[in-house]
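Quick question, first post here. What does this chain look like in 3D?
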Amino acid sequence: MQRLAITRMVSRSIEHCELLHLQRQSIDVKKAIEQHKHYEDILGEAGFCLLRLPELPQLPDSCFVEDTALVFNEIAIITRPGALSRRPEIESIKEVLSPYRRLFLIQAPATLDGGDVLSVGKQVYVGLSNRTNRHAVSQLQKMLNPFGYTVLSIPFGGCLHLKTAVTLISGNILLINPDWVNPAAFHFDHVTVDKSEPFAANALLLNEFVLYPSAYPKTLKKLRDAGIKVRTVDLSELAKAEGAVTCCSLIFQFIGEKERNR
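> Answer (accepted):
Ran it through. Tokens below.
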């Protein structure tokens, strides 16, 4: 089995992105593109097969592909983003994922952003937010329970997505901001972010290390002190669009051509 990372080029209209918890700032689009390219390069260096999708100029948030789909070993689920402006993004993602997985679609009145879903083994935690509602939790349960998954709704606050508040940094350790989500909701060990860095809980677990924003040095030290191998990346321009390291890719296993022909 190989691992695929799907990414999408930064939209030239990213300055018109959706914002919920941050004040709008000027985004250096050229710098954002360069930072995103570096992010992709790190994924490639980590051994992932990269599938870089073309820019969608008319869709400002479209580089944040995580919100458009959930990919499990058995199926992929196409989301129904909570922001109306983001719903056109799902059409191209359906085409891209269809060769790799059987597709299920979230239906109205459910709304679901992928950034609100944290999977830890067969446990699937769904954050209830302005973008994700209880109808989505119910639909996910029906889709995933036959494959042995348990889907749990999680309240949180203070940030855009559940994975702004908590992410997986090893097989059984979470990185969490306890001011935004209750650690007791998860039955796993955890590292807490430094209080001066509330947005520091978003990390991307790759093959042998965690990819982590360079903007949070105090929490970075806590991760390294806990024995977590970390590589940093600067995504400061995308952070102005409420983006982070998990947002910019869809990562999953697939059968490569050599394995298929055995």
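The mean pLDDT is 96.
The helical segments are 29-45, 90-97, 134-144, 162-165, 217-225, 236-239, 257-260.
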